[in-house]
Amino acid sequence: MKRHQRLIDAYRARVVSAATGMFAHAPYPLARTMEYRNDPGLFGPGSATWSIIGDAAAFAGGVRALLVQAAHPEVVAGVADHSSYREDPLGRLSRTSAYVTATSFGARPEVDRAVQVVRHAHRKVVGTSHRGRPYAADDEALSAWVHNSLTDGFLTAYRAFGPRRLSVDEADRFVAEQTAVGELLGADPLPDTAAGLSAWISSHPDLGPSPGMEEAIAFLRSPPLRRAVKAGYRVMLAAAVATLPPRIREILGVKRRPGAMVLGRVMIRFLRWNLGSSPSWNVALVRSGAPVPDGTFRQPLPVDLDAHRLED
User: Fold this and answer.
1) What are the structural domain ranges in the chain?
2) Average pLDDT over residues 288-312
């Protein structure tokens, strides 16, 4: 029995390393979070944000958000003209993941720092899209598209692949919570219900195909990942595509594949079994002094609690 458990543990460790290694190309944003004990951050224990973004379905939600963002010509032009995703794709992915981690699970000073880093970077992102429209990443409408697509992506993925069914009130609570991040970014508009957000995304008047979109979709179809990781990623991509509104799939030139939702659920269950919930959610519970539920987390805490006790 012990040998059997050791084999399972070794297998899980390999899966964890493969899945989380993609996001390890930027400093961990909560490395000093225990300096802010009893700080609940923007959301706190019991929030919809911690449980939704802390679940393995967030992997699919992030991919879906990237797809949706690419449907806006001015947003994707800013990415194409100013982003390092071609030269440093895993670094770009890791920095985006760090931002989501900090704003979702960080103490309030960590949230503010993450937002300021993004706003500072956005001030330099200006230009003109292929259709002759000027863009600026700090424009409130373009910021809203990026922020709202993330919110809608995480919520839609959880509803499709999460461990339980969300009530309408829970979904609305998540969307309303996420408007706090959008406000810090200066984004507008910020729908505050799940139905309102979904309608805003699917019927947005400024969407359309573009050269930047074609390049982004080509990249998302075949990112530079290890072969074993890429196989799972392709399942995740197909599942994310299957959750898109038909209009956005048509704009992006992607199709819903038969069986994509079923395979997506299997993949997310597989990741959840191996990874458990986000260790950043775990450390946020510890920092805020909240109880840690049994059986929710499998990975070790991403901070050294003993070191912080010594500093005290």
Assistant:
1) 39-311
2) 82
